[in-house]
Specification:
By secondary structure, the protein is mostly helical. Helix content is about 70%, strand content about 0%. It has a domain at about 15-50. The protein is rod-shaped and about 70 Å long.
Length: about 50
Amino acid sequence: MINFEEELKKFHPSLEVEDAEDAIYNQDLTDVADMLVGMMKEAEKEDQRRLE
């Protein structure tokens, strides 16, 4: 059975929309596109070093 008193003790209110947006946007997350751009830049640098 669910003990509602215990569940209420564990409850944490959710963030307001603005607070949630700030928390999400302030994180520095790298997505796949950022990783691919970085890999391409590194590959270009290696190609330039080989040509020198």
